[in-house]
Write a structure and sequence with these properties.
The complex is a heterodimer of chains A (298) and B (289). Chain A has a domain of 187 residues: MetI-like (MetI-like fold, Orthogonal Bundle), CATH 1.10.3720.10. Helices cover 72% and strands 0% of the residues of chain A. Chain A is built from 13 helices and no strands. With 289 residues, chain B is mostly helical. Chain B is built from 16 helices and no strands. Classes of the chains: A mainly alpha (298), B mainly alpha (289). At the A-B interface, helix 1, helix 2, helix 4, helix 5 and helix 6 of A face helix 1, helix 2, helix 5, helix 6 and helix 7 of B.
């Protein structure tokens, strides 16, 4: 089968199209990768500037500066906070992930195993909640969060982000649970598990890759979210990285005596990208299998 | 009559945590948004604790608000152009990923997905190095080619925002299109080949009709995402210059959290919600739910 295909494709491949294709591809690579070249060169350049330039020597100074603070004269005072920002982002992302996994696993499992009248309508309602623009909800959320004490509270931010991603994740979880045979749980019940323990001890491990995807995606949505902390976090030492990086550029435009140390910011950006890179590496095989068809809305 | 077993009630109780979360943090805010938009609530001070009911005054003022109408225009311009550009890029890249002519799929996929996996706030920040007027990479390339340098972030602010947005977001249509393309049976093309169909004919008569459906769904989802998100313009221009990049969502944020008019901001938020809701219904209709 494979040999047949490649023979066919060779006969299809006209040399002209191939050359033009590679030239276009080269231009596209420049468009895509251009900003990243600057990012990586600057992060390892002790004298980073906001513009693309070749560093004289490569060093890890910027990464060290994030954790121990900078000694450069007049450099961004922000770097004293950067290690805290990383910790804050981790707290938010971990909270989001934990809440999403527990609640979406339970709801997705019940949706998968339970038949009740109006189930389709329920699923549709979940979908429509997910369609509500986050901004519309954010303004009243601010008042709600004052009541709950979620302003300037990292766990609160995590909970809000979790509730925002929950509808989609329940759908995803249900899809994975549908593929697990019921006999597996029945055996667990015989051994004395109830529904809840069998869910977390037997079904969730069996749904391994699916749970992994949900976990990583929810972690990422907590890690990368910008608008929720923008509204709820008011003091600088509680900023997650997203807000911290934005604040360097927007909240202190040209403050006297402060120079943005681009090298350190670029280093922080690279640290900020690491979880996304890991997650891409783990789920890369599944990414090309996204189906957006009738079966998604069923 | 449906028989209710104890077992099922226990199972149904699994919904409770999720439902509590969704009810408190998604449903109540939505209802409140409607309520807020009918008041003159402010973000701070006396008007925060006991705002007074003003009826449809906020919407009336919206209709007369010159900046609001400008930002409606700006929003649609932003959404439509980035939608087109995202689809163009997505289609090109998905053709690269699925065609059998080009080698190095793994590297291509990794490079194509790189902007997508970058956290949102970083994207405009990364592009400052490219778009700067004096030393930006884009202008340096232009000068290398003998063309005059352009003022990207100031004079072409909208274009810059769209470039960043589509650079950041072409990956989703690319993935959807790539998986749609691979699901087309190979026999169709073989038959077309036997019948002597040209490459263009095969593309327009076989490929396009078969990927039309995921295409439409994807377009609606992207439009909804764009109308909601203001991270890029917030970081790049903050709505300037002269409100030329003031998206509706950013305008709502500004009104509520910079001018402290929470009621007015909620009214704008509801306008966005109405547009998104119509899009949602369109999506369901397109999906033949």
């Amino acid at each position: 089968m494979r040999g047949e295909k490649s023979r066919l494709s060779r006969s299809l491949a006209e040399p002209g199209i191939k050359i033009i294709g590679y030239i276009v591809l080269a231009f596209m690579f420049i468009y895509i990768l251009n900003p990243f070249v600057w990012l990586f060169l600057t992060a390892f350049n002790p004298h980073g500037s906001p513009f693309l330039e070749l560093p004289e020597n490569l060093a890890l100074d910027n990464f060290i500066a994030i954790f121990v603070g900078t000694t450069k004269m007049g450099a961004a005072a922000h770097s004293i906070y950067m290690a805290t920002w990383i910790k804050n982002s981790l707290i938010v992302a971990a909270t989001t992930m934990f809440i999403v996994i527990v609640t979406s696993a339970m709801a997705g499992y019940a949706l998968s195993r339970l038949d009740f009248p109006g189930k389709n309508l329920f699923m549709l309602g979940l979908l429509l909640i997910g369609f509500m623009p986050s901004l519309t909800k954010l303004l009243p959320l601010y008042k709600l969060c004052i009541i709950f004490g979620f302003v300037n509270n990292l766990f609160g931010v995590g909970i809000i982000i979790a509730s925002g991603t929950l509808p989609t994740q329940i759908w995803v979880m249900k899809g994975f649970f549908d593929g697990i045979p019921r006999e597996l749980e029945e055996q667990a019940w015989i051994c004395g598990c109830n529904r809840l323990t069998s869910l977390f001890r037997v079904v969730l491990p069996a749904a391994g890759p699916g749970v992994m995807v949900v976990a990583l995606m929810s972690f990422l949505s907590g890690w990368g979210n910008f608008t929720v902390p923008l509204i709820l976090i008011r003091s600088e030492d509680l900023y997650p990285i997203s807000l911290g990086i934005a604040s360097i550029f927007t909240h202190h435009p040209g403050e006297v005596g402060l120079v943005v140390d681009y090298g350190v910011v670029a280093a922080l950006s690279i640290i900020y990208m690491i979880p996304s890179l890991i997650i891409y590496y783990v789920v890369r095989r599944h990414l090309l299998k996204i189906r957006l068809a009738r079966m998604e809305v069923r | 009559m449906i028989k209710i077993r104890r077992e099922d009630v226990f199972l149904a109780s699994f919904f409770i945590p999720a439902l509590i979360l969704l009810f408190i943090f998604q449903l109540i805010p939505t209802v409140w948004a409607i309520q807020f938009s009918l008041t003159d609530m402010a973000l701070i001070g006396k008007k925060f604790l006991n705002p007074s009911y003003v009826g449809l005054m906020n919407f009336q003022r919206l209709a007369e608000d010159r900046i609001f109408w400008k930002s409606v225009g700006v929003t649609f311009e932003y959404c439509l152009i980035s939608l087109m550009w995202r689809f163009t890029l997505g289609l090109i890249f998905s053709l690269y990923l699925t065609s059998k002519i080009f080698k190095g799929k793994t590297i291509m996929a990794a490079v194509f997905l790189f902007p997508w996996i970058t956290p949102g706030v970083l994207k405009p920040f990364l592009w400052i190095s490219v778009l700067d007027t004096k030393y930006g990479t884009a202008n340096r390339i232009l000068q290398l080619l003998g063309l005059p340098a352009q003022s990207w972030v100031y004079e072409r602010a909208m274009l810059s925002a769209i470039a960043i947005n589509s650079w950041a977001g072409y990956a989703f249509p690319m993935l959807v299109l790539a998986s749609a393309l691979t699901s087309i049976p190979k026999e169709y093309y073989e038959i077309a080949e036997i019948c002597g169909a040209s490459r263009w004919y095969r593309f327009t008569r076989i490929t396009l009709p078969l990927i039309k459906f995921p295409l439409v769904l994807c377009a609606i989802m992207i439009f909804k995402e764009d109308i909601d998100d203001f991270t890029y313009v917030y970081m790049l221009t903050d709505g300037g210059p002269n409100y030329r990049t003031e998206l509706l969502s950013l305008y709502a944020y500004h009104k509520a959290f910079v001018y402290y008019k929470l009621g007015y901001g909620s009214a704008i938020g509801l306008v966005i919600a109405a547009i998104a809701f119509i899009l949602g219904l369109a999506q369901l209709k397109a999906a033949k739910f």
